[in-house]
Write the structure tokens for this entry.
Amino acid sequence: MRRQIRDGNSLLAAFASIALAFAGGAFAAPVERSFKASCDGSEQKYMVIVPEGQKTFAGALVALHGHGSDRRQFAEDGRGECKAARDAAASRNLIFVSPDYRAKCSWMGPKAESDVLDLIEVLRGEYGVSTFYFCGGSMGGTSALTFAVRHPHLVAGVVALNPLADHLQYDRFQDAIAASFGGDKKSAYDEYYRRSAINYPERFTMPVSITVGGADKTVPPDSARLLAQKIAFRRPDLIYFDEVAERGHKTDYDASKKAFDEMFSRAAAAAPRYKDNTIRLAAVNSSAPTGPQRTSFARARTMRCCSTRPFLCFRWVDA
């Protein structure tokens, strides 16, 4: 039933409310700031956007840029992933922060990791926040996952869009990754292993949203898909996974927004209980249905574990 609004002022107020709802909240303009890196004394820059009219904040959303970009990407770019991240922060009274973290080819190497730790201390001191969510696309999504397994006690939630989860199996951008990690896979094997999120699914004690594209040739979806399965096996209440067969190396605004909404709703909700070792998973393995349709853990079939050891034997059963 529709309600008619006859009063002119009420009409204006209604339009203002609708505009605010679509905008997700009010943000000031991005401001560039810097800090002195503890690991080498260099100046490290970041962008910060503060919700207007607020003196206290619910936390901070740290947005990590992709390969070849810098701090400005998530703070200023109009692409879907970036706008969805800004809207997610604005609508939840979060400080929005986008660091260089050793731009332009970081991949969350040791110095980038140290810089993010420094930044967290800066944000704690300046804004009094103690809750930190991480997001990013491509290299940024990869780095968000890496930071989460390196410092799970500091991360309240992760949104990783088109990420990589296994550096040891990846063969692109190797010169940049080697420069960041201090060597190639042979000479710095331990660094590649410890920065591959797929090796530490048990460290995802926070909600995680992952989006991938079946047609992504830049960062193929296999490792992120397997990581999502591993997380789901341990904590199905924490994972949201979205794969679209025809999606390439980009997640549009609606899918990005959904990923943020799912992560934040899981952060706020109590974990559901599952019985008989039954977990909810997307149709994402070789025995699952295929096709151009979207699949996600939010509306998946049920897969029952028929082994005491994970990922050795699964069979599809009706939900």
